[in-house]
Design brief:
By secondary structure, the protein is an alpha/beta fold. The protein folds into four domains: 122 residues, Rossmann fold (3-Layer(aba) Sandwich); 119 residues, Transcription Regulator spoIIAA (2-Layer Sandwich); 118 residues, Transcription Regulator spoIIAA, CATH 3.30.750; 57 residues, Beta Barrel (OB fold (Dihydrolipoamide Acetyltransferase, E2P)), CATH 2.40.50.140. The strands form six sheets. The chain has a six-stranded parallel β-sheet with strand order 2-1-3-4-5-6, sandwiched between helices. The radius of gyration is 22 Å and the shape is globular. The relative contact order is 0.08. The structure holds 5'-deoxyadenosine and iron/sulfur cluster. Iron/sulfur cluster (SF4) binds next to helix 6.
Length: 439
Amino acid sequence: MNKDKVYIETYGCQMNFSDTEIVASLLKAGGFDIIDKIDDADIILLNTCSVRDNAEKKIHQRLMHLKQYKKRKNKLVVGVIGCMAERMQEKLIEEEDIVKIVVGPDEYRLIPQLINQAIGGQKGIAVELSTVETYDDITPLRTEGISAFISIMRGCNNFCTYCIVPYTRGRDRSREIATIINEVKDLAQQGIKEITLLGQNVNSYTANHKGQNIDFPELIARFAEVAPEIRFRFTTSHPKDISDKLIETIAANDNICNHIHLAMQSGSTRVLEMMKRKYTYEHFLGRIQKIKELIPDCALSTDIIAGFPGETIDDHKQTLQAVRDIRYDGAFMFKYSPREGTKSYDMEDDVDEKEKLRRLNQIIEMQNNIALELNDAEIGKTQEVLVEGSSKRSRDDMMGRTGTNKVVVFPNNPPCKIGDLVKVKIIRTTSATLIGKRI
Ligand code: 5AD
Ligand code: SF4
């Protein structure tokens, strides 16, 4: 019998990309084929994000577009999974007649069954949140490559006032350590060279192991020891729990990348309070200083929101000043987007769209200039680069990333292959790339 073919399209954060690998694994075990060409699909799943309104708008547009596939293949089943499924629930089925199944992040085990019912003509919805589901017995169906994600915890307990995540992904829960260690060992055996540990708040990881409590620094130190040939990254960390112990652990282990993503959100303590971030700007700056002191060449990246309710020009200037002072290597910068159901949705969204955009653009411009300056400062330095493939522009060039997550392009001479760690001297830069040569 021919197996039904499933095509999964993923939107949003790395956690969603990691979840798609879990869903693909569950589907394969359930007797489906996973394909990467949408035209052949019997089932199309969209794994979605709800964090900002435009992320959801994109999905609505995509669903409109998918109607043409439905016209061509009447028995096509379309499903929406992930955060938007959890947030909208039955409304999605009511509003979008093409959608037959809706599945939230903690109910992925039900997807094969729901698809089978949908093939039989029955619409299905599963959106219960769980306090324990971590999918730790599922081996993700990973696409080939030298890098892999491992989700080590799920959910979030912080309830920052602007954020929908605690409502779409539920409470914070950590995976059992033994299952993660086995996954790390398996990946090492398969020749994986880089692992990114994922969680909404990886540094709030805590699990009991043989009667002993293991926290995130202990966990990552253990991995660094178990798999010395693998480079470890992690994301994302909350500034309130980036401990000295974690910074010291990164400093002490060569194979834990010198790159920390720490979402600042705002440079104004007043706004941080309204956001319920649980730290002051001074505390945040103190953490950054500690990182710079213990790991001088550590790359720093951040998230910033412009135009939160009640943000004054003075608050905005403090954010600009923070960007100027801290000098991030990279930043994700967003306009505030009110999300129904969150605390800040009830606050007056009083910075108008034009002003939000103006503030956002100011932050982006300043940040881009700083990133360029920091890239230029790399000229003349030698970097260790993990080779990821040939460069998009030229087959004679290879590309890879430094531990600090900067993209480096260099002539393939002497020749190297994907997965090699090579030394490259940086000779010039373009806006987002370092150009170098092997030494
Ligand atoms: N509006 C704008 N940005 C948001 N983020 C989360 N919620 C919102 C929102 N309602 C941003 C934060 C977070 C990142 C993942 O998305 O900066 O760190
Ligand atoms: Fe959202 Fe805050 Fe949790 Fe991050 S820490 S997922 S911003 S509630």
